[in-house]
Each structure stands twice: as structure tokens, then as C-alpha cells.
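Below is one such protein, fold included:
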Amino acid sequence: MQVLLAHVTGRNRAWLFAHPEASLTPEQEQAFQQARQRFEQGEPLPYILGHWEFYGLDFIVTPEVLIPRPETELLIDLARTQLGPGSRLIDIGTGSGCIPVTLATVLPNAEIVATDISPAALTIARLNAEKHGVGGRIRFCEADLFPLDLQSASFDLILSNPPYIPTETLHGLEVFGREPTLALDGGPDGMDTIRRLLVESKRWLAPGGALLVEIESGLGQLALETAARQFPGAKIQVLKDLAGLDRVLSIVT
């Protein structure tokens, strides 16, 4: 509840602890009770707050986009090791835009494209890009995977945090119905979007380029086998997150 109090008062939690005698205005009390009710009804805290942290940056989040998670920060760390000055990269299924916006802040010379099938998600992504001063450096495109109007383009790095939770598994999770199903449901085995991404990436990846795809922790072996069929001869591995779970499919051609 301290987080909600800080949210409605505009004070940080340290100030609230130091001033236990402080009281809420009638407007703040009403806002707090409304926020508390939403939280008790199961609405995710980031949606109530309207923002969430990712890689040390603060991002606008709404129910139209997936809440950024710490596991996805591994994509940023890996991308930074793959890219040199002037590299071209594309983020597929950008959601809140946390991946391309973060990379634009740490890689000032990179050329960046970001796509999403959801116009509502792209609106939030653009707002986040403007918030962090990189709106002019990211081209946002509405597309199912790759944008059709970039037919001659190629990318040094393709990144994606696609829908990867198997449908039956998703229906048993707390996030089901609370975060956008479009960004979570990976089909019967979790691989529907990933399979399409691997097939289409072959024509978009520059020679010597890399593909980094976040996966569900139980998909490591299946992802490796699927990638090997599409990219024979490439260096393919599944990298683990800080919890020791399979998290990112890495393909380096």
C-alpha cells in the first residue's frame, strides 16, 4: 500500500516513512481508495501506477502493452555485445517500446526499427520514445512481424520478445486476462510466432548478423531444434537468465 500512497500523493516512500503524521486530502483519499480497489481486484500494479521500470528507465505502461520484466533485460545486455557503430537493428513485437528505446539510449549511433501488430501498443511505444528523447531515432511500423515497406532492408540484429507461452499454460496463469493475450499466447506449444519469425528472419538478416529471441523457459530444446533447421551452419545456443532458466535463443550467422 505504500507504493499506492506514494503514487497518489506524489511523494516517495522515504518521505512517507519519515512523515507518518501526514494526512491525505479528500481528493487523495478518493484516489487512494480507487487504486486500492483496483489492486485488490487483481489489476497489475504497473497498470494502476501507469508506469514501470526497465533497465533503469521509467516506461509508460497501459493494459494495451505487456508489462516490462527483468528477464527481458538480458536481450539488452546481449544486443550491446553484438552491435558496433552504425549497426541496424529491428525489434519485432515492440509493445511498450522498452527494448528499442533502451537500446537507442545506450547505442546513440544505431539505426532502429520497431514493429507491432497492435496500433494501440505502437501509440504507447512512441510516447515512451518521446519521453526518453529518442523519438526521432526509432522508426515505428505497424506490421505482423516485418514491415512490408522495407523490402530491400537488412539488419545486423533482429530482436524479439514474442508471444511464447503455450495456450493451455497461459490459461492457468494469473496474467491471463490481465495483460494482452496477443502478446502472451504462443499457440499450442508456445512456438507459433517464433517459427514464423525464424522463417522470415532469413531474408532480413544481414550476412554475419544475429537474431535474439526471448523464449519460455521450457522451450529451450525445441527452440534449438527449430532454429537448426532454418539456420544450418549458424552458431545457435540458448542462453540462461539470472535465475538459471533458458531465456534467449541466440543465432549468429
User: Anything to note?
Assistant: The mean pLDDT is 92. The longest strand covers residues 205-214. Strands lie at 51-54, 57-60, 88-92, 111-116, 138-142, 155-160, 205-214, 235-240, 246-252. Residues 91 and 100 are 6 Å apart (CA to CA).
